[in-house]
Each structure stands twice: as structure tokens, then as C-alpha cells.
Design brief:
Blueprint (H helix, E strand, L loop, with lengths): L2 H5 L7 H9 L8 H21 L1 H4 L4 E5 L5 E3 H16 L3 E6 L6 E2 L2 H4 L3 E10 L2 E10 L1 E10 L10 E10 L19 E7 L3 E6 L5 E6 L4 E6 L10 E3 L10 H11 L9 E2 L5 H11 L2 E4 L12 H14 L3 E3 L19 E4 L1 H17 L1
Parallel strand pairs: 3-7, 13-14, 13-15
Antiparallel strand pairs: 1-2, 3-4, 5-6, 7-8, 8-9, 9-10, 10-11, 11-12, 15-17, 16-17
The chain binds 2,5-anhydro-1,6-di-O-phosphono-D-mannitol and magnesium ion.
The site of magnesium ion has 4 residues, from β7.
Organism: Gossypium raimondii
Subcellular location: Cytoplasm
Cofactor: Mg(2+)
């Protein structure tokens, strides 16, 4: 490779270039989404830099406060939450935010909501004549996010990440919880940023999934994983087996099939990091399943619908995989509270089909 020439490359596909290219396909687009995403990217870079120097800066450790999930908060969780709230509010494109770390939704104050207009054009038939109308619709965004997921892994240097999902509000009403208590299929974009051996941002705006790696020397996310497609069937399953004694029948049967396949195929490998972003990232790239099922102790599972289950399910489906709750397609769920939880099985298309079949068979027995 010619490193001298490489050092002067300015034609790299940065995330901003990529999103601008995508948005330019919509003539009515005014750049609001690009601005919002740039602020999310800024938050990711900030958190990445804090995670990298956490040990040095003595950020590792507990603040001593208990968060709304009843867990002790770590300093980095608190910092990341502040970073993303500030970044999102200052984008001037948001109206309501939901963070894992805050009990209540954050309604952005009117002066910071900004006003993003959306041009529309319509051709309609009236009195046997065609009419053309050009107008302006306001649109603003709701962002749901987990600022630093996998916090139990912070102190030992295992990959952790930020997860986000974005809804669009098309009119000028006062923001309410109803704007975010929407099924995941209504999201316009979702993604995660993984702070690991490299910093990787994976994004979908509803048409495929793309991965960008932070080049620390440029401070830019560069497209490194274009059009990620999850393998149709995988060789890995990922679950916290320590909960096995409390699993339901279909989960236990699926894991049994992974270890002792009856069709002569090789046993699957178990990989479980305990950090959703890292486990889902591996599942997207290598295929297989990631599960956080219901169990007798936690009938709704552990993971939160709005900012964990939905964004990851959105990415999985856009990469050609599936996401299932044990009862239904995950993206069809309608949350009733902002911190609702749901069981989740996501991954390769064929593997999730197998899990769906086990639940369907269980349903027939009942
Ligand atoms: P957190 O939001 O408190 O960090 O919890 C979510 C994490 C996920 O990253 C991971 O998939 C899961 O909890 C692991 O849970 P467990 O330790 O029960 O296996
Ligand atoms: Mg979390």
C-alpha cells in the first residue's frame, strides 16, 4: 500500500458524506437529519475519548447514586448521559428525548426545539382536474437512547456502547409521551456506537445497514462495513446460560438443539460478552442468535424496549435478519411506558425461524 498517497486521501466516505448522499435522494430533505446525526456522532466521539482515558482520568468507579433501574451508577454512565443530552438538545432538531438513565422523558424547551420544515408536494384529482399543491410541514425528531450500555463491563475494559433510535414528528404539537410510545417499526433510523478495540458506529436509516470506524488521526468515522448483511444461518448462539434454570420450554429447547443438534449438523459455539452492543455487533457480522429471554424471575426479560430492543431489532431486520419477542415481531410491540422491557431473540433469519417454530409448537400444546 502506498502510505504516502494514502495520507493525502480526502475522498474517503465519511459518515457525514454518506448521510448527505443518502438524504440528497429526497428532494424535500433540508439537512435536518444530517444535522441531528452530526450531533449524535459528536456525542459518540466524546464518549469514545472518555472511555479510552477513563482509567487515567479516574472516571472508573461508582458515583454512589442509584439510578432509576435500582442499579449503582458509574461515573462514565453519568457523563455519557450528560454528553448525549447536551448534544441532542443543541442540535436544535429534537423535541423529546428518552434516556435509560432518566426516569422521565426530557421535553426539550421550545427555544431549543428549533423549527425544521419539511417541504411537501402533492398531486391530487378534484372535480376531474389534477391539482398540484406545494406546502411546508414541520418535522422534529424524538431520540431514545442508552448512553452507555453494558456498564457492568466498564471496569474491566470490555467493549461497551451507546444505542439510539430516532422517531420523526411531523407536526407542530406540544411534544408528549405519545410521540415516543410508538412501535419500533415507526423509527426512521437506529444505530449503535461500540467503544471497543476500535470505535465503530453502525447505522440504518431504513435501507440497509452500514458500519463506520473512527479514524482517531482524522477524528472522522469512515465507511468500513458497507451494506452489512447478516448470514442467513449462523454457527453461534449467545445467551446468559446462568439463567437456564428459570427459562421457558422453547428457550431451553432451542439452546439444547444448539448443543446437541438432531439433524447431524455440528454443535453451535456459545459466545456471550454480556454487553449487548458487542454481542449484537458480532451477531450482525458473523450470524447466529443473540437472546435475552423471559425467565421465571423476570417475565418481561431484562432489556428495555425503546432504547435497546427496538434499535437492535431495526438494525437486524435491515440487515436481513429477524427479531422476535417469543410472541410477536419485536418491531410491532407498542410500548406503554418509556422503560418497558421485553424478551428478545434476534439474529440470522433461519435461526430465528427455528425459535419461532418452537414457540408456535409450545402454543399448540397449551
Ligand atoms: P445495562 O443497560 O444496565 O448495561 O444492562 C444491559 C446489559 C446488556 O448490555 C446485556 O445484554 C445485558 O445487560 C447483560 O445482562 P446479564 O448480565 O444479566 O447477562
Ligand atoms: Mg442498557
Amino acid at each position: 500500500m502506498d502510505h504516502a498517497a494514502d495520507a493525502h486521501r480526502t475522498d474517503l466516505m465519511t459518515i457525514t458524506r454518506f448521510v448527505l448522499n443518502e438524504q440528497s435522494k429526497y428532494p424535500e430533505s433540508r439537512g435536518d437529519f444530517t444535522i441531528l446525526l452530526n450531533h449524535i456522532v459528536l456525542g459518540c466521539k466524546f464518549v469514545c475519548s472518555s472511555v479510552n482515558k477513563a482509567g487515567l482520568a479516574k472516571l472508573i468507579g461508582l458515583t454512589g447514586e442509584i439510578n432509576i433501574q435500582g442499579e449503582e451508577q458509574k461515573k462514565l454512565d453519568v457523563l455519557s448521559n450528560e454528553v448525549f443530552i447536551k448534544a441532542l438538545v443543541s442540535s436544535g432538531r429534537t423535541c423529546i428525548l428518552v434516556s435509560e438513565e432518566d426516569e422521565d422523558a426530557i421535553i426539550v424547551e421550545p427555544s431549543k426545539r428549533g423549527r425544521c420544515f419539511h417541504l411537501f408536494s402533492a398531486l391530487f384529482l378534484m372535480n376531474n382536474c389534477f391539482h398540484y399543491e406545494l406546502g411546508l410541514i414541520q418535522c422534529r425528531y424524538c431520540v431514545v437512547f442508552d448512553p452507555l450500555d453494558g456498564s457492568s463491563n466498564i471496569d474491566c475494559g470490555v467493549s461497551i456502547g451507546t444505542i439510539f433510535g430516532i422517531y420523526m414528528v411531523k407536526d407542530d404539537h406540544e411534544p408528549t409521551l405519545a410521540d415516543v410510545l410508538q412501535p419500533g417499526k415507526q423509527m426512521v433510523a437506529a444505530g449503535y456506537c461500540m467503544y471497543g478495540s476500535s470505535c465503530t458506529l453502525v447505522l440504518s436509516t431504513g435501507k440497509g445497514v452500514n458500519g463506520f470506524t473512527l479514524d482517531p488521526s482524522l477524528g472522522e468515522f469512515i465507511l468500513t462495513h458497507p451494506d452489512i448483511r447478516i448470514p442467513k444461518k449462523g454457527k453461534i448462539y449467545s445467551v446468559n446460560e446462568g439463567n437456564a434454570k428459570n427459562w421457558d420450554g422453547p428457550t431451553a429447547k432451542y439452546v439444547e438443539n444448539c448443543k446437541f443438534p438432531k439433524d447431524g449438523s455440528p454443535s453451535k459455539s456459545l459466545r456471550y460478552i454480556g454487553s449487548m452492543v458487542a454481542d449484537v455487533h458480532r451477531t450482525l457480522l458473523y450470524g447466529g442468535t443473540f437472546m435475552y429471554p423471559a425467565d421465571k424471575k423476570s417475565p418481561s426479560g431484562k432489556l428495555r424496549v425503546l432504547y435497546e430492543v427496538f434499535p437492535m431489532s431495526f438494525l437486524m431486520e435491515n440487515a436481513g435478519g429477524q427479531a422476535f419477542t417469543g410472541k410477536q415481531r419485536a418491531l410491532d410491540l407498542v410500548p406503554t411506558k418509556i422503560h418497558d422491557r421485553s424478551p428478545i431473540f434476534l439474529g440470522s433469519y433461519d435461526d430465528i425461524e427455528e425459535i419461532k417454530a418452537l414457540y408456535a409448537a409450545e402454543g399448540k400444546k397449551e
